[in-house]
Amino acid sequence: EDQVTQSPEALRLQEGESSSLNCSYTVSGLRGLFWYRQDPGKGPEFLFTLYSAGEEKEKERLKATLTKKESFLHITAPKPEDSATYLCAVTNDYKLSFGAGTTVTVRA
Amino acid sequence: KAGVTQTPRYLIKTRGQQVTLSCSPISGHRSVSWYQQTPGQGLQFLFEYFSETQRNKGNFPGRFSGRQFSNSRSEMNVSTLELGDSALYLCASSLTRGLAGANEQFFGPGTRLTVL
Questions:
Q1: How far, in Å, CA of B3 to CA of B114, rounded?
Q2: Per-residue confidence (pLDDT) for residue A93, from 0 to 100
Q3: In this complex, is the C-beta atom of B33 within 8 Å of any C-beta atom belonging to chain A?
Q4: How many angstroms away from the CA of A40 is the closest CA of chain B?
Q5: How many CA atoms lie within 13 A of A90 on its CB side?
Q6: Is the CB of B99 less than 8 angstroms away from the CB of A94?
Q7: What is the 3-state secondary structure (H, E, C) of B17-71?
Q8: Alpha-carbon distance A18 to B89, whole Å?
Q9: Cβ contact (<8 Å) for B45 and A87?
Q10: Contact of B27 with B77, CB cutoff 8 Å
Q11: CB-based contacts of A98, cutoff 8 Å, min separation 6
Q12: What is the mean pLDDT of residues B25-37?
């Protein structure tokens, strides 16, 4: 059965304190891995799609990387507006399986 | 460009009733997927529609159904509501098949359903 595990569950950071979120997965026939950001009371906002091991993508202070078994979302010098729940999801053409998310809180 | 819209945003129903939720995708998008989000189970895939046909289905009982119209708008129906159906229901649209080829999906704000 497809499984997506995110760690840690929660992360509290000081503004400027860089850190990484982990997403480990087991899925047959991986077609892609997604990262989303979700703010309270809103739908997830698309961040990145990664298709193959070794791929990296960047957007502002965020950088996502992919290996054969896990993905990392690096947050460099975070700001309070980066506070959100970050969700990882994998697809194998038939369904999209989400992890439980990592809730990031950045204090000024 | 307008995003994905969902109506209504909030809904309160009682056990045994049925409910219909609506989703209008981004203009030009042909695929709509539905998800249920709860604190205990997180985000779970319900089904995906493309060209008015259900392409994939998650592990939900037959009480959950949906359809897609020729203009790509989609509706989701839940019959015989149970307390456990209380959740945020999200729809997402993508240009082509959302799951096949790992195409980007864009989510709406969701419909918050409360079953009493």
A1: 25
A2: 73
A3: yes
A4: 10
A5: 24
A6: yes
A7: CCEEEEEECCCCCCEEEEEEEECCCEEEEEEEEECCEEEEECCCCCCEEEEECCC
A8: 33
A9: no
A10: no
A11: A4, A87, A88, A89, B42, B43, B44, B45
A12: 94
Answer yes or no: are the C-beta atoms of A92 and A25 closer than 8 Å. no
Best A6, A28, A95 residue to mutate vs chain B (most B CBs within 10 Å): A95
Better pLDDT: B96 or B11 = B11
pLDDT, one tens digit for every residue, chain A (108 residues) = 788 999 999 999 999 999 999 999 998 888 899 999 999 989 999 999 999 999 999 999 999 999 999 999 999 999 999 999 999 999 887 778 899 999 999 999
What residue type is A65 in one-letter code? T
Q: Is the peptide bond before A8 cis (omega within 30 degrees of 0)?
A: yes
The answer to whether B100 contacts chain A (CB < 8 Å) is: yes
Smallest CA–CA distance, residue A36 to chain B, in Å, is 10
Token reading at A51: 């298709």
